[in-house]
Amino acid sequence: MHELALARNMIEIVQQYAREHGADPVKTISIRLGELSAMSRALHFCFGAASRGTLCEGATLHIEEIPLTVYCPGCDENKLPMGRYSFRCMDCGIPTPKIITGKEMELVSIELTQSREHLAPKLDRPAHPQGQSTHFAFQSV
Ligand SMILES: [Zn+2]
To answer: Distance from the CA of 34 to the center of ligand 1, in angstroms?
Structure first.
């Protein structure tokens, strides 16, 4: 149930953000997931159920999958490993324990819908420009 916990954790962060910005429903959530987390399909699957009844309900979840790359001391370069579970340089075959990319779990942006009820001007809070994004990482539990 790791994916479900992750989905809930992400929804909680996004909701928090939406509440701070007028509590408009969330339109799009974009995240970046490392290939190593092997989670994107499961997360997509969980998102619908986990977001029900939250400000994230009905939002589109965009997942950008980051490929796994490792540092090869032999080639002194970042390389692709032989496989997801075989951390050896694809070119020279030596072990490459240092992972450069592929472990990311990052929230890239959140887009809120602007519901008609919120069109009344509120001077204490600037209107969020279309496509505004926020950058922060979320942690899996
Ligand atoms: Zn190498």
So the answer is: 22
Enumerate the domain spans of the chain. 2-66+103-137, 68-101
Q: Which SS3 state, helix, strand or coil, does residue 43 take?
A: helix
Top CATH class, 2-66+103-137: alpha beta
Q: What is the pLDDT along the chain (141 residues), one digit of tens a residue?
A: 578 888 999 999 999 999 998 888 999 999 999 998 888 888 988 999 999 999 999 999 999 999 999 999 999 999 999 988 889 999 999 999 999 999 888 899 999 987 544 443 443 333 344 344 444 455 443
Measured in Å, residue 96 CA sits from the centre of ligand 1 at 8
Ion ligand 1: residues, Cβ under 5 Å: 72, 74-75, 89, 91-92
CB 33 within 8 A of CB 66: yes
